[in-house]
Amino acid sequence: MAPTTCTISVTVNGRPHVAEVEPRRLLVDFLREDLGLPGTHIGCEHGVCGTCTVLLNGASIRSCITFAVQADGAEISTVEGLARDGEFHPLQDEFSEKQGLQCGYCTPGMLMRAWEILAENPDPTPAEVRSAIASNLCRCTGYQFITEAVIAAAARMRTTKETAS
Amino acid sequence: MTTVDRAAAAPPVRDQSAKRRWVGQSIRRVEDPKFLLGRGGYIADRITPGTLHAAVLRSPHAHARIVRIETDRAKAAPGVHAVITGPEAAELCDPMPDFGPDPARHTWRCLAAEKVRYVGEGVAVVVADSRYLAEDALELIEVEYAPLPPVTDPERALADGAPLVHEALESNCAYERTFDFGDVERDFAEADVVVRDRLRWHRSGGQPLETVGAIAEYDAGTGSFTIDTNTLSFTSYLFMAAGTLKVPANKLDIRPVPAGGSFGSKLFANKPAVIAGMCARKTGRKVVYLEDRVDNIANCDHHGSDRVYEVELAVMRDGTMRGIKIDVIDDYGAYIQFGVGHHGNALAQVVGPYTIGSVRYRVRAALTNKNQQGAYRGFGSEVNNWMLEQMVELAARELGLDPGVFRRKNFIREFPYFIPTGNVYDSGDYDQVLDKALELADYSGWRAEQKRLREEEGRYIGIGLISAQERSVFSATEFWFWFDEPGAPVTSTPESVSLKVDATGGITAILYSCAFWGNSPETMVSQFVAEEFDCSPYDVSIVYHGSRDGLPATGPGGSRTTVMLAGAVEGAAGKIKEKARRAAAHLLEIDSDDLEWADGGFRVRGDPERKKSLAEIAVMLHLFKHSFPADMESGLDASKVFDHPYTTMPSADRKDLGVFYPFMGHACHIPVVEVDIETGAVTFLHYAAVHDCGTLVNPRSLAGHIVGGTAQGIGTALYEEFVYDDDGQLLSSSYLDYLIPTAMEVPELTIGHVETPSPYTPHGVKGGGEGGRMMAPAAINAAVNDALYPLGVRLTELPMTPERILSALRAAGPAGGGAG
Fold first, then answer.
1. ipTM (interface pTM)
2. pLDDT tens digits for A70-125?
3. Range of the domain at A112
4. B490-642, which class in CATH?
5. What letters, b where the CB count within 10 A reaches 16 and e where it falls short, cover B564-591?
6. What residues 142-161 of chain A have any CB closer than 8 A to a CB of chain B?
7. How do B682-692 and B495-501 pair as beta strands?
8. For residue B377, which of A3, B34, B262, B810 sits 20 to 30 Å off, Cα-Cα?
9. CA-CA distance, B67 to B56, in Å (whole number)?
10. How close A144 comes to chain B (CA, Å)?
């Protein structure tokens, strides 16, 4: 018996897609394999480690325990959408400057979570950053330079916003 | 004979006074942009359409005979291309590469053939159009097991009448030997005080967020495999994996792709590559096998040390440490792929930074019904650090000495220093490290605060102070000096780099066994190349070469990569500069001795305007060979196979193991913790760490290793454990139960660096990649014990979970707050 499929419409990093997916297809597999966006990684496959974090309508979710059909009609943001016109987003630039990554595997999820944190609170304290990124495991860095990077990026993003307004 | 000619074997002492432009700078890593853009190119990112997916059926039993496997229904399932059972795999593949003591009597295969020996061991593999369909089909395989009694405790495994993990071995003891180094009996007879303890270190593991995987293709026309994997290492030994796949070594090309972390756990991890290769040949298709998280926890072959210690430390009343007797049982699980090499690591620095004069080391390797041990950051030396520091702490209490004062009294201060096992410590300045750590930790301030909080608020604050070693750059003699026969010559354990200067002067560096594992080989090599050629490190191009036609290489492990790459780059650069010098001399019509290297080219001494840049020389050598003497060939490239710079033979009687881990890093960690005696929770109030890894290449990168390693050490000390119950069931098979520290559990570290250059390595670099995890478990244990000392409680078992802390408090009775 051939598996039944569903039609879904999603917008990923601003680009609309219509696709046929099995109901059981995980969102992370849909993004990586069907849409060719390998930046979202798979870590624990239990929704614990946060490696697969993407933004669904602006809120972070675990794409390894979300079905693609649950994203029907949603706007999704992944790490591939962070850099614009060949320029790093301030978060990416500060992760590089502060060495907030080593193996880079948790980095896309961490960047998307950091983006969400700064959208909610543009001027967090280091303690607030640590509390907020506790949703995402990093096995390499011990979080110290990630925290520094998020704080530094927040400062730059505030300055940019002030300049713009 | 027990001594070797030590002085003669040492390499020449180098002048490390040179000024450096790039080595020592915290430049941004050259690896980072692709990862920040989500274009890392990890193994899962390289699965192309049409690739088949393999999934492994894992045993639910810890110990059982496989009676029957029924695969017809699975084979008929949608999208399934093949189902291979353990017995079939034993026909298709030979046993796995194994450096264990007696491989024929504890045979290890990619899938279990006759019986399963741990929960999670593979019994069959399905190959299908997708991972989804492969997992569907796994559920259709019927396996009939005849359960056998399991054994999961190492001491019970060694007792008479225990169930045998391998019948052919006729015992669960895979290895036993007692070594004496120095005059142990005299030191103990003369000692004023002997402190004794029993210590227990439970198993944890590297657990990188990316699992192990391989994409294999078999070309029936040429009979050769091409396998992409995130686990390339020990390329000089890949003939063993080729043997497993039943092809000659020159028909197996293993190509490295970036790994999402390893921490040792991807070291020589060939099983996924073998499974993928076997499936590719069977189906005639490209096949990926990528572990899922349960595979990686339960069936990864890379659990860390699992030890029971009985230790005695002999000291004098004046605070002099004399000798140590160590009796250790290590639970290796069901197989023993690296032998007891983990204890070679321990013996490299068994006396720590102290002038302990004698060592008795008894090691027993127990086989049990658990996943086998492999590598995890420290490779067993971190466990020795913890054991030794626990004993030092116990002796300091017994003698009534401050932990810093007691350690300082016994510090080694003359280098090079040969410890009783025969290994050398090349250099160090342990006083300076301790001084800096005491200052960064505000040690006396915290001692006062500890007293005040205890008296005024009834809070239990503890200050841990440990000083410990971080050996770097192993020689593989440590894998065989356990045996009298067969002996072998000293092992060279090389690393290679090729440098190619193109016609425009652009430099490409080719690495041979150095996959990117989260360390920074590209940044390190780029900084070394930039130092040699005065170019920008960002202009250097890096290629990771496959195994088949590569040069001899070993890869990451034992904190060797940076030192060995430095030597290989230095050697290759020297050859290129020599040819460039001759070419420049010809072009400038001057004697080559009159040229000097300066600012990216050769110039005439005393006439700096007469010069040729590397690019000017390179274009001539690439395009205009006939402008040069007949013996000069076109091109400008060179390779260097850099062999271990300092290693010597063990003595025949093994009372002197020779030099096998000479470049000795050192660190002092001082965490301040609070223990909540109601809940057993441990929180950090402060954490200072000072490391000396010789000359720093990229201080920010090293700091990253220190913090990250400390975070893993916090996990080892407080949270992480692969828990097997008495039936052999693995109780922590997901991250819901196997607890990895988050940003809330890891404190901000105050980091200090001391630089004592190695006299024997390029630039004076020592390895530092395992740093934090070598120290943190010992330091945190010391801090918790310091906090609970007024209650008469001492933790001797890691991880110190709330449950273990509360049990210890209860066992201490009312004084331990255990009345409630």
1. 0.97
2. 999 999 999 999 999 989 999 999 999 999 999 999 999 999 999 999 999 999 99
3. 90-164
4. alpha beta
5. bbbbbbbbbbeebbebbbbbbbbbbebe
6. 142-147
7. unpaired
8. B34
9. 18
10. 6
